[in-house]
Specification:
The protein is mostly helical. The protein contains six helices and two strands.
Length: 152
């Protein structure tokens, strides 16, 4: 079900600038488009992402009901893959020996297994945060919010 908001263009523009400025100030990186992903493109991960969402909700008086943190972000414990790290540590001496023998020409191709990989998340985008801000209240992604401008 889509929510319809009817702001004037100036208030929509103000919302865009407000959320973009907030994210860029907190993360220290540029938001390049409405499709900018918070975890993948801006590096929001673990406890940092939790604090940033908490700050966003507190600053703009938003409701976190409907927002499932684990759906959009990896938690701190999931960022460190202990099994993968042990495998890399085990093979590191072999890679070092081969690298030395090849006079630095060897570049190890380290396999990345889906078994060892972190779970997939639905990365929260700048557009999702903007929709949440414009809608107000409980969390909604941008595909759940339809914004229609007022006619003069």
């Amino acid at each position: 079900m889509k929510t319809i908001k009817c702001p004037e263009f100036s208030s929509l523009r103000k919302a865009y600038i407000e959320v973009k400025t907030f994210i860029e100030a907190k993360v220290g990186a540029d938001v390049e488009s409405i499709n900018t992903r918070n975890e993948e493109d801006l590096g929001w991960t673990g406890d940092d992402s939790y604090e940033l969402i908490a700050d966003f909700v507190a600053k703009y008086h938003l409701d976190v009901s409907g927002f499932d943190f684990s759906k959009h972000f990896l938690n701190e414990g999931e960022l460190f893959q202990p099994l993968e790290s042990l495998v890399l540590l085990f093979f590191a001496p072999i890679h070092l020996i081969v690298w030395l023998i090849s006079f630095g020409q060897y570049r190890p191709q380290i396999p990345h297994s889906d078994f060892l990989a972190a779970r997939k998340t639905e990365d929260l985008t700048f557009g999702d945060m903007l929709a949440w801000y414009v809608k107000g209240g409980s969390f909604s992604t941008r595909d759940q919010v339809y914004v229609q401008l007022k006619k003069n």
